[in-house]
Amino acid sequence: MYQMLDPKTLTVLVTGGTSGIGAAAVRRFAGAGARVIVAGRRAERLKALADEFGDRIHTLELDVRDWDATQAAVAALPAPFASYNVVFANAGLALGLEPAHEVRMEDWDAMVDTNIKGLLHTVRATLPGMIARKEGHVVLTGSIAGDYPYPGGNTYGGSKAFVKQFSLGLWADIAGSGVRVTNIEPGLTETEFSLVRFKGDAARADKIYEGVAPMTGEDIAEQVFFACTLPRHVNINRIQAMQSHQGFGPLTVKRG
Ligand code: NDP
Ligand code: 8X3
Question: Does any ligand 2 atom lie closer than 6 A to the CB of residue 228?
């Protein structure tokens, strides 16, 4: 029988663990017996996860945009959490759907600071430990938006295209080190993503998921769990998944 890794041997650090895909990953791994370090900014969400899973969970109230805080939080991890061997750099957001010439600069800054710089902070703070231990796995949350453009996706899509290329560059650097790299690229997934994108406008957010059965955080967490529990000689470079009614738009020609 094919031998998957025992999840009880995994200690998983999840950023963006307080909601959506990240929270589902926390539950998937902790539910299977892994230790999980959950990072996010919302303290009450972190506490709820700690209450649910007890001493299998360690929480970090952390804004990944802050390099000093990210570095310090990783350096201060207590045993046995300090020997993490999976890092799921998942925290991220989209803000707005305006065309480039109308967008608020603060929104572009926030996406770059979180989706690119926050992800880099997470990887740079955690990678040396896994390289030294010769065992680990970096999982990054990209998006189909990093592959296929859509109107209003400008900087969000650009940030996820960065994640795609960075994941390949990271693998070029560390293949053979014992640390694996996987880019998870979900499509339409119902989480707090659209509520955040539309700045609390729940009616507009709900419309995004109307008339389709969107993927859920659990669907994506299962893909992460699969990639991380494959035997260590297998590296999944990328998993791209779409909701089964989602397709590609045609190329447009704007005439006149
Ligand atoms: P959610 O809004 O439900 O979750 C986002 C998570 O990111 C929250 O836990 C939030 O925690 C955290 N986060 C945001 N900013 C920061 C920050 N500065 N520091 C630390 N944590 C932060 O959305 P999703 O679960 O959908 O999003 C997770 C990832 O999946 C994102 O990278 C997103 O781009 C990506 N994605 C989502 C898709 C979708 O359709 N939903 C599809 C493709 C990719 P807190 O607010 O507590 O800090
Ligand atoms: C989120 C997917 O298509 O809503 O990354 O931008 S999409």
Answer: no
3-class DSSP assignment, residue 191: coil
Substitution candidate for ligand 1 out of 15, 36, 41 with most atoms within 8 A of CB? 41
Q: Check: CB of residue 214 under 8 Å from CB of residue 144.
A: no
Give how far Cα 243 sits from Cα of 67, 95, 192, 246, Å. Answer: 34, 21, 17, 5
Q: How wide is the angle at C-alpha 132 spanned by C-alphas 127 and 135, nearest 5°?
A: 75
Domain 7-241 superfamily per CATH = NAD(P)-binding Rossmann-like Domain (3.40.50.720)
Q: Please tell me the pTM assigned to this model.
A: 0.98
Choose which residue among 74, 90, 150 to substitute to test ligand 1 binding: the one with the highest number of ligand atoms within 8 A of its C-beta.
Answer: 90
| Interatomic CA distance for residues 129 and 42, integer angstroms | 26
Beta strand pairing call for 35-40 and 11-15: parallel
Q: Which helix (H) or strand (E) holds 56?
A: none
Q: What are the pLDDT digits (tens) for 226-240?
A: 999 999 999 999 999
